[in-house]
Amino acid sequence: MSETVTQRPRVAGSDFAALNRQITEAGLLERRPVYYAIRRPVYYAIRMSVVVAMLCGVCAAFVLVGSSWWTLLVAPARRRSAAARGPDRTP
User: Fold this and answer.
1) Which positions, given as ranges, span the membrane (predicted)?
2) b/e map of 7-45 (b: 16 or more CB within 10 Å)?
């Protein structure tokens, strides 16, 4: 019996090179400066507004609760709002 073996046609490059070629031809690697000029600042402005609103709400809760044990329930929310601002800059 004779077996016929079919071989794949030889293509230069690796699988990654072929995928990279497809992505480049589709235009997915082109820069989009409008995205960075408009979209990102709007996103950060909204995020900063939410963080400031959270912080104001937590501070108002501390004032309303006063010096009582209920402050312990508000404290984790304070830490959460501080974490949303980013890492501490104090040494």
Assistant:
1) 50-75
2) eeeeeeeeeeeeeeeeeeeeeeeeeeeeeeeeeeeeeee
Q: Which domain holds residue 76?
A: 15-85
Q: Taking a C-beta distance cutoff of 8 angstroms, is the pair 38, 32 a contact?
A: no
Residue 58 lies in a domain: yes
pLDDT tens, position by position, 33-72: 777 777 778 888 888 888 889 888 888 988 888 888 888 8
Tell me, yes or no, whether 55 lies in a domain: yes
23 occurs within a structural domain: yes
Number of domain units in the chain: 1
Q: And the tokens for 24?
A: 């480049």
Q: How far apart are CA 50 and CA 82, in angstroms?
A: 12
pLDDT tens per residue, range 6-29: 776 666 678 899 999 999 999 888
